[in-house]
Design a protein that fits this description.
Protein name: DUF4351 domain-containing protein
Pfam family, one: DUF4351
Strand content: 5-15%
Distance between the termini: 46 Å
Number of strands: 7
Largest sheet: 5 strands, mixed
Number of helices: 15
Strand order of the largest sheet: 1-2-3-4-7
Shape: globular
Length: about 350
Amino acid sequence: MSMPPADFDGAWKSALEHYFPPFVAFFFPKTAALIDWQQPVTFCDKELEQLDPDLTTGKQRVDKLARVRLANGQVSYIFVHIEIQAQTDPHFSERMFCYHARIFDRERLPVASLSLLGDENHAWRPDHFGYQLGETELRLQFGAVKLLDVDLALLEESSDLMAMLALLHRDAQATRGQPEERKRRKLARFRTFLRKGYRAADLHHLIRFLDQLLRLDPVLNEQVRATIHQIEKEELGMATFVTSFEELAGKEGEARGEARGEARGEARGEARGEARGEARGLVKGQSILVLRQLERRFGPPPPEVQQGVAALSSDELLALGEALFDFARMDEVVAWLQMRD
């Protein structure tokens, strides 16, 4: 059975959305030092889409455009444009220039153009675009970090979330076509994440990155899940942590649903018993996982929260599981549930 490809784009896109300041600080410290991170970061996704030089081709990009305030004591803004490129592209430098020029033309504000190169070609190192015609000269020098150049030992020693993501990226490349080695590294990284003591929300994201980048076939993935449960008990001495909300909710819900559906189907002789049992089992599995998440983050949920979660539909449970990344207190969960009433 072949291994599914690593989802590099999905992992880095999520990192930019949830960890934009840490991303800039880790990979581009000079730019990060110019920015007042106490002020809001305004993402300009729609504007970036309109400026895409490849808009008509339908190509998918992992990029981000943000408006930030400078840390110079004045009310002064700049735009930060970031591109993450996992494969070589002969037109990459030109595209960086087109974005830079179009952003400046539209906004008339300085633009910091930054790129993270995640490919495996040591010789491919785009960092500028330009040309010269007689007395005319044009040159854009943009920030470029090659993941292959980042010292692995430094990444291993770091607890920075972006260092962990960079390690997973390198692991995915190093274990391509080696399922057993990928399985070994996936389990080792999971144990490392637990030992580094990350916040629950950060741990959720790291484990999602783990699932996106170190992907395995279903058989090996089931083996990994079973071992992960054991690692959790060894490292944390507690009930299992929710590793991948959508995946586990579906798996546990399907298992319980099948059992209930089969029992009802046998008892009543009705095929619809299985379908109903599967649906109810899925929702039950999801609600249990959400309650586990809540307990890990905020302590035991009060009865009204338990009842509120139990009353949610499958789609609502998925929405709550995602919203938990943004909540800081249990009362925010209560408010979210009240809005659903």
